[in-house]
Amino acid sequence: MSKINISTKNFNNFVFLDTETTGIDKKSKIIEIAILKFIKNTKIKYESLINPGCKIPNKISKINNITNKMVENSPYFNDISKHIFMLIRHNVIICHNALFDLFFIKKELYQSGILLKQIYYIDTLAIARKYFNFESNKLIDIAQFLNIETKQTHRAMQDVLTTISIAKYMFANLYNTGIYSLKPSIYNKTVI
Fold first, then answer.
1. pLDDT in tens, 20-40
2. Using CA of residue 21, residue 160, residue 88, residue 126, what is the dihedral sign?
3. Which DSSP state fits 76?
4. What is the pLDDT of residue 75?
5. Are strands 30-39 and 14-21 parallel, antiparallel or unpaired?
6. d(CA 125, CA 10)
């Protein structure tokens, strides 16, 4: 894929995505997903709690406020996998700490029988590290530095909305310094 324009006026064909999981190890499962897709100046919003088929550790519930009770009647990832695939395929995904989210998305799709060979993405964490000098590159810390209001952290849709605001700031600043486009990275790691 060639470079893409980073104008903040038009997020067409970008998909902002965030997940919440049962932990950070490779065996963890997605418990919440949020997607905001921009296509032809229209926003397609999707969010869902997900039943991971296992218990959510208390230490995780304390971080994201998602409890076992909240997900017990939610769909399993397999139930929504085709819809997720249709929302993200053939688009550039933008997220903060993309390698984390994309690993779990690709793994859960694979376990649902959907092979997604490669994902084009832009990582706002990587942009922060490369082009900016924030005191901390955590999503919430960048948002606070930029005076972006966040109602609740570590919930997928709120993190998507925060990432959009941060991306707008970053893209505008890069554009003003003469960087008019970015080349998306490719996530093509094999999952087992």
1. 999 999 999 999 999 999 988
2. negative
3. B
4. 98
5. antiparallel
6. 21
Question: Encoding tokens for residue 130?
Answer: 């490369």
Please say whether the beta carbons of 95 and 163 come within 8 A. yes
CA distance 25 to 141: 23
Beta bridge partners of 21: 30
Structural domains for the chain: 4-187 (3.30.420.10)
Helix, strand, or coil here: 96? coil
Cα–Cα distance for residue pair 176/65, rounded to 1 Å: 39
**Cα gap 130→135, rounded to integer Å:** 13
What would the mean pLDDT of 154-167 be, rounded to a whole number? 96
What does the pLDDT look like over 116-159, one tens digit per residue?
A: 999 999 999 999 999 999 999 999 999 999 999 888 778 999 99
Q: Which residue is associated with the tokens 């903040």?
A: 8
Q: How far is it, in rounded angstroms, from Cα 50 to Cα 31?
A: 4
| 3/46: higher pLDDT | 46
Widest CA span in the chain? 50
CA distance readout (Å), 101 to 18, 125, 147: 6, 12, 25
Is 184 in contact with 120 (CB distance < 8 Å)? Answer: yes
pLDDT of residue 9: 62
